[in-house]
Automatic annotation (TrEMBL):
Cited InterPro entries: 7TMR_DISM_rcpt_extracell_dom1, 7TMR_DISM_rcpt_extracell_dom2, Diguanylate_Cyclase, GGDEF_dom, Nucleotide_cyclase, Rev_trsase/Diguanyl_cyclase
Documented EC number(s): 2.7.7.65
Cofactor: Mg(2+)
Catalytic reaction(s) noted: 2 GTP = 3',3'-c-di-GMP + 2 diphosphate
Enzyme type, top EC level: transferase
GO biological process, one term: cell adhesion involved in single-species biofilm formation
Protein name: diguanylate cyclase
Transmembrane segments: 190-210, 217-237, 249-269, 281-299, 305-328, 335-355, 367-386
NCBIfam families the UniProt entry points to: GGDEF (TIGR00254)
Organism: Marinomonas profundimaris
Length: 569
């Protein structure tokens, strides 16, 4: 409070305190004594009265006993028509102009203000959210009424709040400057919450479009419904689009859509359909109840909303039970989900108790669902990140397995099986183009003698050195592989016989100059023999071409080795 505004509690009896008098059921409502011209009253005492008949006239209400309370109250579902009473006294010698704010008026149906001086009604205003002509007192989702206090005067305010479902409101009094400041800072926290949820929604929608994993889609839908409900329930939609009253009542069904998408997210993230049938049917049963209530809400939204608290409790029990079951089964994501959903259940429980009027009116209780959605969304994003990492690790493992299945472990070249698959695919594509394709077979000369004389370790070094030469000399379009023990094969697309011979000679000449040291005194040199053959363009047959290249290889061996030979029929 920035000004010298103080509360004075005027006792009906001065001798004994009221709590010692058995005949007195209600304490007197304190009068707000206002001094100075700066007023910022956000916490004060007032009174309220619940009109259970919902039909009392104003004179009848004036005769009722009002229950003392704070200026912020939550009274539950049975107090749809509630009156608030605020007593004011201006001790200044000049008139004051104040502004009465109800920042939660957007969720009400009707809000009325009656100004009484000396028991007589001096001014009356009715704000009906379904009548556009009465919405002049609405500003950015908040009801604002101007009130004039004459100098040295008393005035009593009566505020009638008619709610469509749960009754809760908070009243504040400001001077003109503080009224403007209060309106400027409205809903900035809600806008931040909704903005974060929308950012997460876009991210998960992009993940779904790229991966086609349904859990990303259901999580994005959960974020959309949660963000929409937060914007609706906490006034951001009213602030931005001036939508209030009955027309927005059915929009609260989005609160039912949110747990539906969350449960669908659980089904896919835990893979309950395949692995956990009991948990799967429990989640489906919960979804069925929520869907049934949402459909019923299309015809009777007030009754459907009255069931929502019970359904929320059932959903919390089932979802937590399933999560605990996953944790017992040591599911890797169960702990993250339990943390996020447990926090959501905690804050939502506070909110349910708040709407039922069972806990005090404060920011955490009144915004519990929104806080719970936000916290859960952030924790569930960790699950999404963890799952993405798991999928990436799985893909890497699959690539490694595929690589192991297609490569030779010693040389890291393609093995015979993979070479055959790749070469046959190229031949099939080339069948219409009928371009020249050549196959080359390479064999290490006297390889058995090298193994026998120097051991298999040196033999492996010779094989690796041949593989290195193939990598260095072969072109980008060529496919080469270790075809057998000391035998290698090369497929050369779009290559004529003479071109293949030139490439084979480069490989052979490079290898005949290789020296592999054994120790400080000894070293080994080796040579290779190469056979080259064209693939028949009319009837491309890989094995037939390799057989012809083998014949050319035998010719090179018979002619003294360390040479390349072309096949000729």
């Amino acid at each position: 409070m920035t000004a010298s505004c103080r509360f004075t509690f005027r006792l009906m009896m001065l001798i004994f305190p009221f709590w010692l008098m058995p005949s007195l059921t209600f304490a007197a409502i304190p009068t707000l004594v206002i001094e100075g011209d700066t007023v910022k009253l956000e916490q004060f005492q007032m009174g309220y009265f619940v009109d259970s008949t919902e039909k009392m006239s104003f004179p009848e209400v004036q005769r009722q006993d009002f229950q003392p309370s704070s200026n912020s109250v939550s009274l539950g579902l049975e107090a749809k028509t509630t009156w608030a009473q605020i007593k004011l006294e201006n001790v200044n010698s000049t008139a004051l102009k104040l502004y009465l704010h109800d920042p939660y008026a957007y969720h009400n149906h009707i809000l009325e203000l009656y100004e009484v001086v000396d028991g007589k009604l001096t001014r009356q205003r009715i704000l009906d959210m379904d009548r556009k002509e009465t919405q002049q007192w609405m500003y950015r989702g908040s009801a604002v009424f101007d009130i004039t206090l004459p100098p040295k005067s008393h005035k009593t305010l009566y505020i009638r709040s008619v709610s469509s479902s749960h009754q809760w409101f908070s009243l504040s009094l400001y001077d003109e400057d503080d009224s403007k400041r209060a309106l400027l800072t409205l809903f900035t926290d809600i806008a931040l919450l909704v903005g974060v949820l929308l950012a997460l929604m876009v991210y998960n929608l992009l993940l779904f479009l790229s991966s086609r994993l349904r859990e990303h889609f259901f999580y994005a839908c959960y974020l959309v419904s949660g963000g929409f409900w937060i914007a609706l329930t906490y006034g951001l939609l009213g602030n931005l689009f001036d939508v209030y009253g009955t027309m927005t009542l059915k929009w609260h069904l989005s609160l039912g859509a949110m747990p539906i998408f969350l449960l669908l997210f659980m089904i896919h993230i835990f893979e309950t359909k395949k692995k956990y049938p009991i948990e799967h049917w429990a989640l489906l049963l919960n979804i069925s109840l929520l869907v049934a209530n949402a459909i019923y809400g299309l015809f009777d939204i007030v009754t459907a909303l009255s069931y929502s608290s019970t359904l929320a409790a059932i959903m919390m029990i089932i979802s937590l039970s399933v999560t605990l079951s996953m944790l017992i089964r040591k599911h890797p994501m169960a702990l993250f989900f339990l943390l996020g959903h447990g926090l959501f259940v905690f804050f939502s429980s506070l909110s349910v108790l708040f709407y039922k009027g069972m806990v005090e009116f404060n920011y955490i209780n009144s915004h519990g669902v929104g806080i719970g959605i936000m916290v859960e969304a952030l924790v569930l994003s960790l699950i999404i990140a963890y799952r993405i990492r798991m999928l990436e690790n799985l893909k890497v493992a699959q690539v490694e397995l595929k690589l192991l299945a297609s490569t030779d472990s010693l040389t890291q070249l393609f093995n015979r099986r993979h070479f055959s698959n790749e070469a046959n695919a190229i031949l099939e594509k080339n069948q219409r183009a009928k371009e020249a394709i050549t196959v080359t077979v390479l064999d290490i000369d006297f390889f058995k003698k090298i193994n026998d004389a120097y051991g298999h370790g040196l033999g492996d070094k010779v094989i690796i050195r041949v593989a290195d030469a193939l990598r260095a000399q072969c072109r980008r379009q060529d496919i080469f592989a270790r075809y057998g023990g000391e035998e290698f094969v090369i497929l050369m697309p779009n290559t004529y016989l003479n071109e293949a011979y030139t490439l084979a000679e480069r490989i052979r000449q490079e290898l005949e100059n290789v020296v592999i040291p054994i120790d400080q005194q000894q070293s080994v040199s080796f040579t290779v023999s190469i056979g080259i053959a064209e693939v028949d363009a009319e009837t491309p047959d890989l094995q037939a071409a390799i057989n012809r290249a083998d014949k050319a290889l035998y010719k090179a061996k018979n002619n003294g080795r360390n040479q390349s030979q072309r096949f000729s029929p």
